[in-house]
Each structure stands twice: as C-alpha cells, then as structure tokens.
Flagellar protein FlgN
Amino acid sequence: MSVQPIISILEKLEKMHKSLLEHAYRKTELVKNNDMEELDKMLKIEQSHVAAIEQLESQRQQKVVEYFQSKGIEVSSVPTIAELLEAVEDEKERQKLADVRNRLLKVVENLKIQNDLNQQLIFNSLQLVNITLNMLRPQPEEFNYSEKTVRSGNVLRKSMFDSQV
C-alpha cells in the first residue's frame, strides 16, 4: 500500500490551515478596525473550516491505521505521522511525506502565533471597554455599617443588610 492517499489528505489539511491563517490575518485587521459584523461573519467561516479540518483529520487517522494494518504493524492508539515516517520503506514517499508534514507544521505554528496575537488584541479591547464603563458609571457611596450611619437623628434608614431575624 502506498502513502499517497495520506499525503493527499495532508496536503488538503495544509490548504485548509493556510486558509485559516489568511482568515486570522484578516481577523486581526477587523479587530483593529472594530468591525464586529465582519468579525462575526469571519467566525462563522472559521467554524466551517474547523469542521472540515476535523473531518480530514479523521480520514487521515483512518488511512494511517489502514496503512499500518496493511504492513502488519500493530497500532495501540492513533498513530502519528512521525511513526508513519519510520514505517515507510520507499525513500521518495518518505521524503514527500516529511515535506508535507513540515509544511503543515509550519502553517499550524504560524496560525497559533496569529491566533495568540488576536486573542491578546481582543483582551486589550475588552480591558479598554471595562475601563471606559467604570469611568462612566457613578461610583456607589461608601457604606459604613456602624449604628451612626444606620440611624441619623430619630429617623431610621434602611441598610443594605438587615441583621435582625
């Protein structure tokens, strides 16, 4: 059995991750420009990409298991591409598999970096919104639960906490 179907799936995974990376770059600009409508649309597109990636990953796992079974190699868990590289005997196929694996790993790493940046931008935006809201809200009066503040003269005022049961 050839590893070509696995290589094909890895190339599709690479393509999907590259597309996600492009969306992550675009998302950075949308966050900077505070375009929430487009950001919402972008998130829906990303969800469909993630679903497609999960499907491709499931196919990849199945094909790798089938490859190992065809070679008579037992697999206890989901085998990795690194394990597959060790099992492939044809040098050309091994090299092609290694190349596509390395490209995919690079795209995934870049995607992680970009998503971390986006997460930090969103966190900073939320902090700014919270600071602004705190400045606009009236500050509550300080409460002192001594008897003096509860009773002023002969008039009894309600306190926030009623200690009588």
In short: The first strand starts at residue 151 and ends at 152.
